[in-house]
Hints:
The chain is about 40% helix and about 15% strand. By secondary structure, it is α/β, with parallel strands linked by helices.
Amino acid sequence: MPRLVNDGSPALLPRVSLLFDENLSRRLIRRLEAAYPQSEHVELVGLKGQSDLELWEYAARHGATLVSKDNDFRQLSFLRGHPPKVIWLSVGNAGTDAIAELLAARRERVQARRRCS
């Protein structure tokens, strides 16, 4: 989807695919399909129960942004840098609907940060 930059010329925002950690619902894929096409869930790609490092490497290889409530991925991002980008959700016990609304509302910001990588 085009958006206008300061000089008025259109700039295409990159499509961002998300990789949802197993601590998040698989329903997020469908709920966020329009905002984040081609997103995946670790369970659906055969990574359920795998180590954080294996998930990290999968996301990096596939150009996905890793989304988790797990602080370990945030720590890995400090140690290893990116890729992948990490969205650490510090949202307590927020449900799937609240998380979907949060990510959808922040889509443009997520895409802009992805473009800076």
